[in-house]
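job 3f2a | input accepted
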Amino acid sequence: TSYSHKNAILYLIVPIAALIVGICFMIFYSGYKASGEANFIVMLAHTDTPFALFCGGLFALIITLLFSLNTIESKKYGEIFWYGAKSMFGAILILSLAWAIGPVIKEHIQTGIYLASVAKDMISAEYLIFMPVFLFFISAFIAFCTGTSWGTFAIMLPIGMEITIQTGAAESSMFLALSAILSGAVYGDHTSPISDTTILSAVGAGCSVQSHFITQFPYATISAVCAAISFVVVSYFQSTILAFSMGLLLLIGVFYMLKIRYEGDLVKDKNLNENMQRF
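job 3f2a | predicted structure (279 res):
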């Protein structure tokens, strides 16, 4: 074969670049075809995302096949395709089950709408100043239960904006509420065991979904707690700089403490190994 270690990196970069280019092109093309307008926002609003992902993946597959003709023997393609299909079967099965239960939780049972309405009724007037942090936790909980951040956006954005407008808050408070909803939903989706993000990340890392969930949850929660405290600070003191500074200092402090604990554990293990070698 003409394979060379000098151009080995190209066999990684080219398929990924083809995937990105194919998906981006089809996102805007499908949006333009549906809307008939060459406007960036309008095309994104009318795009067919599943179709764009399928076409982008197909385009990347074709480019990869063409790019590998000189490096892979033709009789090995069947073996490679079968190996890839087997490695992805578990992820496809789990995703199918997660996508099956997702609409039941979101649309039929309407868990997210119920939780949002209950939270809206329970928040009293004297605590409206802390509305952003409430919206953060509510969005995180809904996204965690439903496994979707975009579904949480659709549920919580109208409710959050309505509450903010009804309280007569300033325009800056509306942006703050919007930020709280978006960040809380992303955190809940990132840590949800039924989210496609968690499932595909676990498959890519070569571990079980449970292992990936357990290992990522503490670190994501540390960031979420720091963000929640920052939302409390900005709500009470009305200072964005102070809130960002507080969140950054908390993150640095927490990870510095974790670093000290990790180094202490290493010293203990080293001493234990030395003592065992003596005996």
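job 3f2a | The chain has eleven helices and no strands.
job 3f2a | closed
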